[in-house]
Design the sequence.
């Protein structure tokens, strides 16, 4: 077993894997063996060589040991071990950087999305060779209880109202991409990549296919992580909130001026109007400062030029 600290690149076409399956791992140790077995069976339907790129996103369980066990018997496996938990989108981004295939299949390892989709997507892409650059899944029906389904619907509704680049609601991570599509995607320099946004901005011919998504119990996405993802999505896609703040500020100024004029003319209720104006203006100012601060914070993060994720080690089979 060889250990490398930087990814290599195969330049000889004969050694380039046909399909790279890329997934991130976080608290999914009991599911990895099944995921690998089902993915391997699905790839039997696809001609050519293949590889698996597993990204250990600082998982607190034993995902590293499980993948190394698979690597010992399957030389197609590569394990990218991150130095800590960076979050799913950063981990997947790191996985894309290490994928070498002519096609790259992105998917979650929690088995809520069928690993067999890799073969189905490939067959669909080959129906129009050279025309389709990316095929991605969309939930036939959003999983979870009423609160999760309602929350998802509200998230996409608000996001697409804010965004200059609408995203397909209920999109899945399951996605098959051509090498060209992936190479162009990796040219984006976002320090905090929101994959759905960048994939939309990447352009090319993208096809959505309805797919089932099941629920396997509690998710590792806490409310805090979901809120962070929602904010990343909004700030990655649009500057509209800053424009809205300008209009809100102008509106608040008009209301304040009208209140002052009314108090002077009617000579009553001045204290109440003044107090209401203070609360109104104070709330708007705090909101404006918060949103502007978020954008400024992202500018600071971007100008620091920090890596999206830090790779601790890369494990792969020795080349013969």
Sequence:
């Amino acid at each position: 077993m060889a250990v490398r600290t930087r990814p290599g690149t195969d330049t000889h076409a004969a050694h380039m894997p046909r399909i790279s399956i890329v997934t991130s791992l976080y608290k999914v140790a009991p599911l990895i063996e099944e995921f690998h077995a089902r993915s391997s069976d699905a790839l039997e339907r696809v001609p050519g060589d293949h590889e698996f790129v597993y990204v250990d996103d600082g998982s607190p369980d034993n995902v590293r040991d499980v993948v190394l066990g698979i690597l010992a018997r399957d030389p197609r496996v590569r394990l990218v071990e991150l130095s800590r938990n960076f979050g799913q989108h950063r981990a997947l981004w790191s996985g894309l950087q290490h994928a070498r295939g002519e096609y790259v299949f992105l998917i979650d390892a929690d088995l809520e999305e069928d690993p067999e989709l890799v073969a189905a997507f490939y067959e669909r892409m080959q129906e129009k060779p050279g025309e389709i650059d990316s095929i991605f899944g969309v939930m036939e029906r959003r999983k979870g209880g009423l609160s999760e389904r309602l929350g998802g619907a509200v998230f996409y509704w608000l996001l697409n109202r804010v965004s200059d680049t609408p995203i397909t609601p209920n999109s899945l991570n399951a996605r098959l991409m051509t090498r060209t599509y992936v190479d162009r995607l990796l040219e984006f320099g976002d320090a905090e990549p929101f994959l759905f946004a960048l994939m939309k901005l990447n352009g090319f011919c993208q096809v959505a296919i309805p797919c089932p998504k099941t629920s396997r119990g509690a998710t590792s996405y806490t409310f805090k992580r979901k809120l962070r993802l929602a904010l990343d999505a909004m700030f990655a896609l649009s500057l509209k909130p800053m424009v809205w703040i300008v209009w809100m500020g102008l509106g608040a100024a008009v209301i304040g001026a009208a209140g002052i004029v009314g108090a002077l003319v009617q000579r009553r209720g001045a204290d109440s109007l003044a107090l209401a104006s203070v609360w109104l203006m104070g709330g708007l100012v705090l909101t404006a400062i918060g949103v502007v601060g978020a954008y400024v914070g992202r500018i600071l993060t971007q100008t620091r030029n920090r890596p999206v994720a830090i790779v601790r080690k890369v494990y792969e089979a020795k080349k013969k």
In short: Residues 2-237+307-316 form a domain with the Spore Coat Polysaccharide Biosynthesis Protein SpsA; Chain A fold (CATH 3.90.550.10). Residues 75 and 317 are 5 Å apart (CA to CA). The first strand starts at residue 2 and ends at 4. The mean pLDDT is 78.
